[in-house]
Structures are given as C-alpha cells and as structure tokens.
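To illustrate the input format used throughout this study, we show a single complete record. The first block contains the structure-token representation of the backbone; no residue identities are included at this stage. The design step must infer an amino acid for every position from geometry alone.
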C-alpha cells in the first residue's frame, strides 16, 4: 500500500513541478522519477515497452489535438512541448502501481480518465502558456472524449502488459 501512495505522490509532484516550471524542470522530474521507479518499484523488462507505448499514445493524441486547434502551444507548432511528454511518462509509471487497482475495473478507470484527464488539461491550461483553441466548454468536451479514447487504449495496453507477466 505504501508503494501505491508513494507512486501517486511522485506522479503528482512531477506533474505540479513540470507544469509550473516547464521543460528543464520536467526533464529533471522525469529523470528522478525514472531513477526512483528503477530503485523502488521492481521494474521488469515488460515495463519499458508499456511506458514507451503510453508516451507515444500521448504524443499522438496531443499532436492531433494541436493539429485540430484544440490545444494551442506558444511555439505555434501542433506538437506538445517536452514537459507534456514527461507528464505522459510520469502517468505511464502510475499504471503498474497506483492506478493498477482501477485498471482491474474498466468502468472506473475510464471514468477516471475522462474526468481526471480533462481536469488535468484544464488545470494545465490555467497554469501554463498552452491555450484552448475553442473555449473552455467545447474544449473540455473534446478532451473528455479524447480521454475516453485514451482510457480505452490504455486499458487494453495494461491488460496486455499483465498477460505478459
């Protein structure tokens, strides 16, 4: 139980620091989180492909949202900045630990993705230079749908990861 809480605290701490302080801090948070994960969470060879797949999914999804004008980055490019990719890595590290109990209950995990993912982006928009291209209500609706899709894909990834054990 302690590891579940520590894993969640690492994620939340990394999220806050990355969002507030940007790319360099995010990269440091990602490195520290990866080192802590390697030291205290008994990673297996199957963790790395799961993490890579989650980060790739995040990059693809955030890029599509950028291309559609839902997320507007200060760079003017549709691609997410590095700190957002670190957030996906931090999130990936919660799947085998703090979020694992929810992945065993698909509906609860999907609800968490829809609500928590959307609220995470809303908070990020308020705290960073990323803007919502279509206003709060429409963007939140699009994000909820995107996070429902992400959640379904993530759930399939985690279940495949578990079967590989």
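Output of the design step:
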């Amino acid at each position: 139980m302690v590891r579940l809480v520590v894993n969640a605290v690492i994620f939340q701490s990394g999220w806050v620091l990355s969002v507030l302080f940007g790319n360099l801090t995010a990269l440091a948070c990602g490195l520290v989180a990866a080192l802590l994960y390697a030291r205290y969470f008994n990673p297996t060879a199957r963790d790395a492909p799961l993490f890579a797949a989650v980060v790739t999914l995040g990059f693809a999804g955030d890029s599509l949202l950028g291309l559609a004008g839902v997320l507007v980055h200060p760079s003017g490019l549709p691609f997410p900045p590095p700190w957002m990719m670190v957030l996906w890595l931090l999130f990936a590290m919660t799947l085998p630990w703090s979020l694992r109990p929810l992945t065993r209950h698909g509906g609860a995990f999907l609800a968490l993705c829809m609500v928590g993912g959307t609220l995470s982006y809303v908070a990020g928009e308020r705290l960073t230079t990323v803007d919502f291209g279509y206003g709060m209500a429409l963007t939140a609706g699009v994000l909820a749908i995107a996070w429902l899709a992400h959640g379904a894909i993530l759930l399939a990834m985690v279940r495949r990861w578990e079967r590989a054990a």
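Structural context for interpreting the output: The chain has one domain: 2-163. The two ends are 21 Å apart (CA to CA).
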